[in-house]
Amino acid sequence: MTATKAQGPVKSRDNVDPMQDQPPAPAGHAGNTPAACPAGPHDPAPEAKGPVPELFSWEFATDPYPAYAWLREHAPVRKTRLPSGVEAWLVTRYGDAKQALADPRLSKNPAHHGQPAHAKSKTGIPGERSANLMTHLLNIDPPDHTRLRRLVSKAFTPRRVAEFAPRVQELTDRLIDQFAEKGQADLIHDFAFPLPIYAICDLLGVPREDQDDFRDWAGMMIRHGGGPRGGVARSVKKMRGYLAELIHRKRLEPGDDLISGLIRASDHGEHLTENEAAAMAFILLFAGFETTVNLIGNGTYALLTHPEQRERLQDSLKSGDTGLLETGIEELLRFDGPVELATWRYATEPLTVGGEDIAAGDPVLVVLAAADRDPERFRYPDTLDLSRRDNQHLGYGHGIHYCLGAPLARLEGQTALATLLRRLPDLRLAAEPGDLRWRGGLIMRGLRTLPVEFAPAQRSK
Predict the structure, then answer these.
(1) 58-453: what CATH class?
(2) What tens digit of pLDDT does each residue of 105-145 get?
(3) DSSP letters of 291-360?
(4) Which of 131, 333, 444, 453 is the most exposed place for a label (fewest CB within 10 A)?
């Protein structure tokens, strides 16, 4: 498939934060009227078929995949004005996406952003600049990225993740115990949200008595536009203050946890500033919990709306075979994954991607959700097939910025889905799919709520 020049203005909607999740809202939602945003200087090519899709509307958020199919076919690399007013290139084909994710000319450092200062303030995680939390893995390049990733990677080795499996299972069962007898639950609020929060807090070394504070702060961050004005930035600042205090306490009383490990590495010659340690803990919490919330939520929703695949998985688990669970998690990541767009990149020099010339300083956003439905790479890409074998999806990125916490997220996802299907075998949606709301934003994709019903179960002994 030959790349074509970008065509016509892509439309988008107002009032969406440029970093926060881009997941869908309900069909027919009475939100703001979508507003057209010009995409740049490109004119529609005569071979373009059908109208230019509107991006970032509520309808788009509910099901972005038809619009992404249009972009892959007609404008695979396209400059678009986002709802925030920032102009960025969207990369939607698998081959181009994989190239861009690994291209060292596309920096993660916001200092390379060539647009005015007011535009720079609209990229990244809300509140991270004012809280002095910028020096983390999502914002830096080698050699600093190499140094910091090496320090943290020890916490995510296969051995360490395997050692953590019993704790994840314990958390999973404890959370299900809290609603299993009720016959109904909101699987986002009651299960998918708290599970990764408590897990990552344990990994970081946050004391159990403080973990509910983290849950409250994280809840404000994941709520995005749904909370009080400025609530996200305030939560980030509170988290920053707590992390500074926790790092100080861990220096005095270290433990067998990630923050203590970072401190020990720094004390043994690795250069790690207090700001870097705090920023590292912050991004592991922020990135580590929200992706897993969405993996569990989106994955459960996909199974409940594809009953034949759900039945296959339940039968497999009953027989003691975990093979379908392992391939199934990868397929759920590909089919409707937790991260819709990879985080921001900035061209450090002029380059060409997919036939389009990108200027130095231009922001580039790789659309993982579009790349993972590319028919040039995946057979029957719009079909959910839990046994899919040829599945080199980009759900957790590619290259040196491949998601560090992917092994832990996979463990949490597999444990959560297997335990839900085992303990609540008749689990079913308690709302029409079109009535479900998705969180609005840009980077992440996840449901606001996932109401379910099931036969009330007796508490596990």
Answers:
(1) mainly alpha
(2) 999 988 888 766 555 556 666 555 555 566 677 788 899 88
(3) HHHHHHHHHHHHHHT-HHHHHHHHHHHHTT--HHHHHHHHHHHHHH-SBSSPPPEEESS-EEETTEEE-T
(4) 453
